[in-house]
Amino acid sequence: MPLAPYFILSGVLFSIGLVGLLIRRNLLLILLSVEILLNAANLSFVAASALHSELTGQVFAFFGMTIAAAEVTVGLALALLLFRSSASVDTRNIELLKW
Amino acid sequence: MFENFIFYPFSALAVLGALGVITLRKPTYALLSLMGTMFSLAVLFFLLGAPFVAMVHLVVYAGAVLVLFLFVIMLLGLSAQEGRATEGFKKAFLAVSLFVPAAFGGFLIYLASTLGRTPLQPADGSPEAFGKLLFTRYLLPFELVSFLLLIGVFAAVALALERKEKR
Fold first, then answer.
1. Among A39, A32, A31, which residue's Cα sits nearest to residue A14?
2. ipTM entry
3. What pLDDT is stored for residue B149 in this prediction?
4. Inter-chain touch B104–A28, beta carbons under 8 Å
5. Which string of DSSP letters, residue by residue, matches A43-72?
6. Counting CB atoms within 10 angstroms of each CB, which of A77, A93, B86, B115 has the fewest?
7. Is A99 part of any domain?
8. What is the mean pLDDT of residues A82-97?
9. CATH code given to domain B2-82+123-160
10. Is residue A96 part of a domain?
């Protein structure tokens, strides 16, 4: 099986995640879209690893997962803080820094 | 041929799950739909000769990250339901936010289709080979990433801790 289908799937997932990042207004769902983006990147890392028959890509996918886990912890803590201060996780209510 | 029979159903499932994440209105449903994407991605990792990464992916995402999300959604209550995407958005913004990712994705797909058709040769992604590489050539990044996780835990605790005000 050639590489192209995997990269195409990765590109499709990445653009779906990007749309979600832009149009969702629930902070939690925006974080979920970021997860899709990270996973699309991981998929292309692993696919590239299979192309070169070289493990490095898999190691980088592993690092990517670790970073995603760290990002989720901090992101969810921030969402919790936001909910505590404004009783909502809707991004339309965050307008203190709006220009 | 055998690979095609696994690749196409599961990639379709992954795309459907991702579409569910960005369209479903209840956060819990969106989360479960992402779970489907994660499972099918794990299957694809198996297909690419990365059983260790696939298992770690399942444990980290389905086991930890998504459950953490579920906890937070439950904690915040189901009031976090989302309205339709079309209300409260300027039409122009909506058009741009659909067009830009579509153009970007189209560009990525174009790049991918220019790749050669040489068949993939999966590397040996067994835990043994993976661990050897991780603890020799990538030892420094590994330590840095573990430090990053530690900082992440500190940050989460420091942020979410409820400070009792002194009276």
1. A39
2. 0.88
3. 92
4. no
5. HHHHHHHHHHT-THHHHHHHHHHHHHHHHH
6. B86
7. no
8. 78
9. 1.20.120.1200
10. no
